[in-house]
Specification:
The chain is of the alpha/beta class. It is 51% helix and 17% strand. The protein contains eleven helices and eight strands. Strands 1-2-3-4-5-6-7-8 form an eight-stranded parallel barrel, surrounded by eight helices. The two termini are 38 Å apart. The structure holds SN-glycerol-3-phosphate (G3P). SN-glycerol-3-phosphate (G3P) binds next to helix 7. SN-glycerol-3-phosphate binds next to helix 7.
Length: 218
């Protein structure tokens, strides 16, 4: 499973990159607004930090023509830009045109397997089902992701599934169990994935015992 970090904060991206953990970055207007920088400055900094990894930047126009224009401009910011397009009828028109132009797209705000089927048929590079927001309203987000994976397998659709709106480590575990292509994970959840109290307790005992036994390797 590829791991993307779902943030626009450069310090978080740098840390996750230093841990050797990330395969891509996803942002959205909300995350960019939390970066503490003007959006373009934040976007350029991210693109330069991970020049070989896909970075999703989202359009804000709501018309197909407007989204296409924005997508073409955003694409000029770096060769690793992926254009995030909301799942609307206008967005779908834009995805079709951009796919034909060879611009990578990530169809976002996906909440049903049929939306994902359509995005895949139109040639989206990635599709982003929001599992946490579905859980919030009493649905099963993981079930949605399982359905999308199955439908894509049924029809040989090559669009990669990005499990998005991940809230906690158990979401990540369940995504891995069902074999989702990519999980885009908030930085704090990545940190939690690396921590286990029994590891800390175990290490502290090993170090104490090594001292008591006078073990010195170098
Ligand atoms: O990348 C978009 C998605 O992950 C948003 O998550 O937490 O705002 O539902 P959230």
């Amino acid at each position: 499973m590829k791991i993307f970090v779902d943030t626009a904060k450069i310090e978080e991206i740098r840390k996750a990159k230093d841990w050797g953990l990330i395969d891509g970055v996803t942002t959205n207007p909300t995350l960019l607004s939390q970066s503490g920088k003007p959006w373009k400055e934040a976007a350029l900094e991210i693109l330069a930090e991970v020049p070989d990894l896909p970075v999703s930047l989202e359009v804000i126009d709501t018309t197909a023509q407007g989204m296409i224009k924005e997508a073409r401009e955003l694409s000029k910011l770096g060769k690793n830009v992926v254009i995030k397009i909301p799942f609307t009828t206008e967005g779908l028109k834009a995805v079709k045109v951009l796919s034909q132009e060879g611009i990578k797209t990530n169809v976002t705000l996906v909440f049903s397997s049929l939306q994902a089927l359509v995005a895949g048929k139109l040639g989206a590079t990635y599709v982003s089902p929001f599992l946490g927001r579905l859980d919030d309203i009493g649905h099963d987000g993981i079930l949605l992701i399982e359905e999308i994976m199955r439908i894509y397998e049924n029809f040989g659709i090559e669009t990669e599934v990005i499990a998005a709106s991940i809230r906690h480590v158990d979401h990540v575990r369940r995504c891995a169990l069902i074999g989702v292509d990519i999980a885009t994970i908030p930085f704090k959840v990545i940190e939690q994935m690396l921590k286990h109290p029994l590891t800390d307790i175990g290490l502290s005992k090993f170090i104490d015992d090594a001292k008591k036994a006078g073990i010195q390797i170098l």
